[in-house]
Automatic annotation (TrEMBL):
Names of required cofactors: Zn(2+)
Name of a matching Pfam family: Peptidase_M41
Bias (Low complexity): 191-200
PANTHER family the UniProt entry points to: AFG3 LIKE MATRIX AAA PEPTIDASE SUBUNIT 2, ISOFORM A, ATP-DEPENDENT PROTEASE
Name of this protein: Peptidase M41 domain-containing protein
Compositionally biased intervals (Basic and acidic residues): 162-187
Positions of the UniProt region annotated as Disordered: 162-217
GO (cellular component) term, any one: m-AAA complex
A GO MF label: metal ion binding
Amino acid sequence: YLPKEIQLYNRIQLYHMICMALGGRVAEEIFFQKVSTGAADDLNKVTKIAYNQIVIYGMNDKVGHLSFPPEQNDGVQTYRPYSEKTAELIDVEASKLVRKAYEETTKLLTEKKDLVAKLAAKLLEAETLGHDDLVAILGERPFQSDSYRDFLANTKEFAKKYGSEEELAEKDKSLQKQKEEQRKQQEQEQQEQQGQQQQRQTDEKSSTSNSAQKQNK
């Protein structure tokens, strides 16, 4: 269920990353009606993604297609190329983005509360969950891209179930060899059938010719 590591992200992907990072905090509120410090690292990631979308990647309609990468000197920002008004707008837009993601994540996890509870119970039982465990509880992914299949092919769970990449490559070679042998056999059978058909046609012509000669005599 993890995406392949990529270097480029669009606005929707970044938004989904925010939602994913907020999942732990939202789950605390849904199941325990209180929050803890456990989500601190996730919230730090959420904040960075939200501000980077607006300040660096130019992905906010109100701020526009502008990029303000931080210029730092010994860890201290020495210059900010925008006004206080723009800074306030950035804060407002970042908060709005995170709030929207939080609301959508809350709605999703509330709808899927039973599945979240099953995952939690399974995690307490097994300590770690593999891909097959997730599929057994959540079902197959509705969309299976090439990157998802690549991810699966590189997991230990996949190797244990289907073999390592080397073993899979060897199996693939063996399968290709079998297909090639079957193809050659089919071609040989077709050639034999064609030869037999041609022989029958030749025999029929010869028989017809002999009959005609006898009649002429």
